[in-house]
Amino acid sequence: MDFRTTGALDVVGAMAASDSIDDVIGLLRDYGGRLGYGCFCLSEIPPDHTYTSHYFEEFPAGWSDVYIEHSFYRADPVRHALINAIEPFRWSDLPASPDGSPAARVMREAAEGWRMRDGLAMPIHSVTGAQAGVSFVADRPDVNREDDGGLHLAAIFAHFRIEELSGRPTAPPAPHLSMRQRDMLLYAAAGHANGAIAEKLNLGRREARAHLVAAARKLGARTRAQAIVHASRAGLLAL
User: Fold this and answer.
1) What is the mean pLDDT of the chain?
2) CATH code, domain carrying 211
């Protein structure tokens, strides 16, 4: 089992046992910190690019005031990319904005004025239909990418756990998964790639992927990580 994913599953287990939103946020903050990220924010993202307050944020003091005062949320390329994203992405992987554009100003101000030089942005699609996102921020561009999957898993679970603790609608009743679909999710939760899972289950890669896609569809998930979280919350996996 991949030790980085194992760390994420430990964090998920602690979140599931917590009855405090502050504790959930603290667990996510500490996990991100161990992986090299100095701060993060978690917020919903309206599709019309208007501003909404964060569930939680611990950006450098003063940044949020500047962000709102200059309406950076209207031009922020990370925020815009999160609306249509399926998988996590690094800020530095986004196409470069034209020099002098509002988007370029946002990123330059964040990097030069506030030492937020790169980040890992993760889309979250709520069971309520709301679009949310998490951005973990680093003051250097070389944070290990091998940790991204585990952090994404922990962030999705944190968001869902916060929704539960806030009294928001929770996941629908657990669907029935076939043995193969459940096995695929169990190995995926352990950090194995689809090809490795196919070998373990003596399946062709295309057949293995079809089982995973079917499981995600039954769970109402758009991504592999979301499927794992949904299955865990429904009691279908022994995390």
Assistant:
1) 85
2) 1.10.10.10
